Amino acid sequence: MTNALPPLHDGHAPFTLQELFREALYAFEEWDTELTEPIVTFEGRVVPISQVFEAMRQCDDIVPMNIVGAVTERLTKPWEGEGPLDQMSFSTAARVMGVLVRKRLLANGMPEIVAVAERPAERHSDN
């Protein structure tokens, strides 16, 4: 559950959440053939890496360059940032990693989990 993680403050993540993002990224890198999503621990609680990435989707903080490289090497198209020196926000990195987790789950034969993860929270209709 995402609320088990520290909240963002005006678009900024506490250092502990940024470190947890780094751990989730490393867990993704080590995810080989296992069917289940990797986990990290935060304050004694087990957290799937997708929840860490979801918690950072609104974070405006700039990602350190070593993390940018770990994210961009997984992209099929070159990434170009809009800021000076091609800076990447945690929001962008979290969105990329969230998609990659869903793709990996789908490839591992877990489409029902992916379908739930991709479903919008609410749908509004004008009809």
Automatic annotation (TrEMBL):
<protein>
    <submittedName>
        <fullName>Uncharacterized protein</fullName>
    </submittedName>
</protein>
